[in-house]
Amino acid sequence: MAEFTMELNDEQKEVRDWLHGFAADVIRPAAAEWDEREETPWPVIQEAAKVGIYSLDFYAQQYFDPTGLGIPMAMEELFWGDAGIALSIVGTGLAAVGVLANGTEEQIGTWIPQMYGDANDVKVAAFCSSEPDAGSDVASMRTRAVYDEAKDEWVLNGTKTWATNGGIANVHVVVAVVDAELGSKGHASFIVPPNTPGLSQGQKFKKHGIRASHTAEVVLENVRVPGSCLLGGKEKLDQRLARARERAKTGGERVKNAAMATFEASRPAVGAMAVGTARAAYEVALDYAKTREQFGRPIIDNQGVAFQLADMRTSIDAARLLVWRASWMAINGKQFTAAEGSMSKLFASETAKTVTAQAVQILGGNGYTREYPVERMHRDAAIYTIFEGTSEIQRLVIARTLSGMSIR
Ligand SMILES: Cc1cc2nc3c(=O)[nH]c(=O)nc-3n(C[C@H](O)[C@H](O)[C@H](O)COP(=O)(O)OP(=O)(O)OC[C@H]3O[C@@H](n4cnc5c(N)ncnc54)[C@H](O)[C@@H]3O)c2cc1C
Question: Ranges for the Acyl-CoA dehydrogenase/oxidase N-terminal domain (predicted)?
Answer without folding.
Answer: 9-115
